[in-house]
Structures are given as C-alpha cells and as structure tokens.
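Sample entry (208 residues):
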Amino acid sequence: MKKNFDYAALIGENNPLLRYPQLLDAAIDEFSAKRYDDASLNEILKKAGMSKGSLYYHFGDKFGLYVAMMDIIVQKKLSYFYPLVSENLDTGDFFATLKQVMKATLDFMLADERMHHLSVRVMEESVGFRNQVFGFFVHDYFQTFTGYIRQAMESGQIDTRYPPELVAQFIEVVMANLDKLVTSGDPEKRLETANQVLDIIQHGISGK
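Predicted structure, serialized as tokens:
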C-alpha cells in the first residue's frame, strides 16, 4: 500500500475507473484469472494502453486499482441482491427469499462470468488482505445476511443448534461455488439445479 495515498477516495461515484473502461476491463480479466500477488500490473497496463505514471497518479498503486475495481464489482453484485432482499425481508419466509437470492446469483454469473470468478477468487486471498480490501466498503453484506439468518432462527425456520455466522458462511460458500454445481448451459436447467441445492440446504440429505 502506498503511504499517504487516500484509497477511500477511490470508492463511490468519483471512482476513477468509471472514466477508464479499458482499464477496468483489463483489470477484471487479470484479477479474475489470478490471485492478487500473481496478477501482473504490467499486463493490465499493456492491455489498457495506460502508463504506470498515470496509474500511480489516479490509483496510487496496484492495491488502489484492485480496491477501485472491487468497488465496481461490489456495487454490481449488490444491484442484484440488495433490492430483492429488502423487498422480501418483511415476508417472513427466509427460504423463499433465499430462492430468489439463488436465482440472482445465477443472473450475476451469466451477466459476466469474470465478475463471478473474481468474487470467488477474492475468497481465496488471505483473511488479512480481504479485511484490508473490504474495510473500505460501508455496506457489509455478510453481516447483513447473518442478521437475516438470526431472524430466521428466532422465527423457527433455521435450527438454533448452529451458529448464525457458520450458517451464513456455509450458504455464502455454496453460492460462490454454484457454477461448479450447475453445469448445464440451459438457464432453466441451471435454475432447477439451484433450487435442488436450496432444498438440500433447507431439508438436508438424511432419509429420516
């Protein structure tokens, strides 16, 4: 991280990546294919046609570029999930809402599979790195989702034997790897398999 550079200024409507679509595209290509330490800044700049001097001026360094890129990815992902979660929060049916979240996950995957791969890739980074990156974002999706799970436990929809954080992590891991479970290219088949995954989450695999 570059000393005295204001990485927080990269977040939101003033994100400089919004003015450099070629750089954004090149960054998504590289960071979705490789972990942060293995990703080549030179390769990104070459594809984007940008100089290092310009990159350092606008983003500080490679880390700043990554933060700016993740800001756009996070907002894109939230545009799929947050409205429907908010709309369904008052229905009291956690699993009906989760079914729609699962469909939104598929829609997000199909919209740009690189973004989905990137959201999975970031989970492979160290906890310290993830905390550094997501520390810049006000909206904590995981904590919000954990709150919904606590409400579902209070209403008797989820077994209280399990810690809500563990349940949230389990569901997050399943949805992050949905592309490994849903192999068919047919959208209807993908949704059918996704709903079967949700049935397993809700009812388990025990025959009793």
